[in-house]
């Protein structure tokens, strides 16, 4: 049985986002967002690379800056491992709902995700790698969960990817770079094409930050 979310009301969500922004202003040197156009009146599947404990908070920050606008995102949901939710019950009030990889209840979790995305204004923050990896890997491999969610969505959902990268460069504090990409909608979804598009974009995002001569193709 899955643990369902109890997301905060919109005004409390904005308040929490404001507090998080204050913390990040202290923690990071700068936070740079390369935006992509947001479709009004849709639900949103925001996919990010998964490389740190802070990923959910970084995704929440990005939502506040880009997606929490008029006719945009109204509620935030996050798919979280059930063991983490049992250890941290407060996660469900931040929009988390549970998933147990390898268990029968996984089908219920995926169906619940599709149900969430059927409502305009809902946003699901999703990490398709399903495991932690360096942010600078050149090839991101998607697990198949997204292929079971998107075809079941009833309604209009915009698919958005963000390559989130951290660098230091001239500062003793790290800077975060969010490089977003519009990946179409649930109506033109193709798993292989999505993965290819994301990987081309992710590599370009990395190369835009690196200070080196062009690497030869492998």
In short:
The chain has six helices and seven strands; from the N terminus they run αββαβαβαβαββα.
Please tell me about this protein's structure.
- This protein is of the alpha/beta class and 218 residues long.
- The protein has one domain (10-173, 183-209).
- The chain has six helices and seven strands; from the N terminus they run H-E-E-H-E-H-E-H-E-H-E-E-H.
- It has helices at 10-27, 55-67, 82-87, 106-116, 145-149, 191-209, and strands at residues 31-34, 43-48, 75-81, 96-99, 122-126, 157-167, 175-185.
- A seven-stranded mixed sheet has the order 1-7-6-2-5-3-4, sandwiched between helices.
- It is globular.
- The model has no long low-confidence stretch (mean pLDDT 90).
Q: How are helices and strands ordered from N to C?
A: HEEHEHEHEHEEH
**Helix coverage percent:** 25-40%
| Mean pLDDT rating | 90
* Tally of DSSP helical segments: 6
Q: Radius of gyration, Cα only, in angstroms? A: 17 Å
When the domains are counted, the total is 1
Euclidean distance between termini CA atoms: 45 Å
Instruction: Give the number of DSSP strands.
Output: 7
Order of strands across the widest beta sheet? 1-7-6-2-5-3-4
Low-confidence stretches: none
Strand content: 15-25%
| Shape annotation | globular
Specify the biggest β-sheet: 7 strands, mixed
Structural class: alpha/beta
């Amino acid at each position: 049985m899955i643990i369902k979310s109890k997301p905060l009301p919109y005004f409390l969500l904005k308040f929490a986002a404001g507090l998080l922004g204050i913390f990040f202003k202290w923690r990071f040197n700068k936070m740079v967002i390369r935006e992509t156009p947001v479709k009004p009146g849709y639900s949103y599947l925001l996919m990010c690379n998964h490389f740190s404990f802070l990923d959910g908070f970084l995704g929440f920050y990005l939502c506040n800056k880009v997606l929490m606008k008029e006719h945009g995102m109204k509620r935030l949901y996050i798919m979280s491992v059930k063991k983490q939710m049992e250890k941290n019950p407060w996660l469900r009030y931040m929009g988390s709902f549970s998933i147990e990889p390898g268990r029968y209840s996984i089908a219920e979790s995926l169906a619940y995700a599709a149900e969430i995305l059927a409502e305009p204004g809902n946003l699901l923050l999703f990490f398709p790698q399903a495991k932690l990896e360096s942010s600078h890997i050149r090839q991101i491999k998607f697990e198949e969960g997204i292929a079971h969610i998107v075809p079941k969505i009833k309604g209009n959902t915009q698919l958005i990817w963000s390559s989130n990268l951290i660098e230091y460069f001239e500062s003793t504090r790290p800077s975060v770079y969010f490089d977003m990409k519009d990946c179409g909608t649930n109506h033109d979804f193709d798993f292989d094409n999505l993965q290819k598009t994301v990987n081309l974009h992710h590599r370009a995002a990395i190369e835009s930050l690196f200070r080196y001569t062009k690497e030869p193709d492998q």
